[in-house]
Amino acid sequence: MMKTIFIGCLLVCLGSCAYRQVDDWSGNNFFNGWNFFTGGDPTHGYVHYVSAADAKNLNYTLVSGNVVYIQSDSTRVAAAPGRGSVRISTNKAYNNGLFIIDLKHMPSGCGNWPAIWTVGPNWPNSGEIDIIEGINQNNHNQMTLHSNQGCTMPSNWNQQGHTLTTDCNCANGANGNAGCGVQDTDTSSFGAQFNSNGGGVFAMQWEKTGVYIWFWRRGTVPANINSPDPTSWGTPKASFPFTGTGPGSCTANHFVNHNLVIDNTFCGDWAGKVWGGCPSTCQAYVQNTPSAFKEAYWAINYIRVFEQ
Length: 308
Hints:
The chain has about 300 residues and is mainly beta. The protein has a single domain (about 15-305), classed as Sandwich (Jelly Rolls), CATH 2.60.120.200. Strands 3, 6, 7, 10, 16, 17, 18 and 20 form an 8-stranded antiparallel β-sheet that branches. It has helices at about 50-55, 190-195, 270, 280-290; strands spanning about 5, 10-15, 20-25, 35, 45-50, 60-65, 65-70, 85, 85-90, 95-105, 110-120, 130-135, 140-145, 160-165, 180-185, 200-205, 210-215, 240, 260-265, 295-305. It is globular and about 50 Å long. It contains 4 helices and 20 strands.
């Protein structure tokens, strides 16, 4: 059995660590195998998630030059329940793997709350892993685990990012559903600065030993990204070790049967409550300023999943 440990600043594998590609979400086949969510936003955003057919007809989803675009409405004054947008999740569920996400562009600007994440059934009992997430005019990516009771992280661990919170428990609204978060210190890891740099690549390794997340600006992506070897990538941006039970520890069984999710909502429980520096109120701005959402789109080169 493979085991991954940290020694100094190196991620070291004991046993076989070779990864093989199991999924390639890209190009004209990208949307095969995804479900379009059309219900009310669980995070109480001012958003109207549309069906696959409506997304295609409204050009919210399209493929151009092998780049996949997933975008929100930027032409209409919104009406209840909110601005048109897309939330999709894979039909396939995962219990481990290495997820490589190559992005040219992500939604940015006031009112937006975009994320790429994984989540299991009966939230938060099967856990959630936020790979890419932020709000409004943020330029630092935030990486977070959400779980039921009994999953906490050590306050100091081998990572480049800044620990925000250490208790992952969100059962019954514990800790305000914040989870245990790490903020990337790189100011180009999210939002407008990420886009102006031509995007970048994120990697999330999820194994029995923990969850580890890397980010590279465009032009600094490892040469072995298509034959990935995380042991050569140095210190992750965020480390969430599964070290057992007790204070400052967690086990892998808090995270099971996850679907991969891509979405962009507006306002809601986070973006609507942290509104400083943006005009008007969140809902009024999102509702009445459609042209402000021309940057509210994902441009995805590919998402690839590898397993051992």
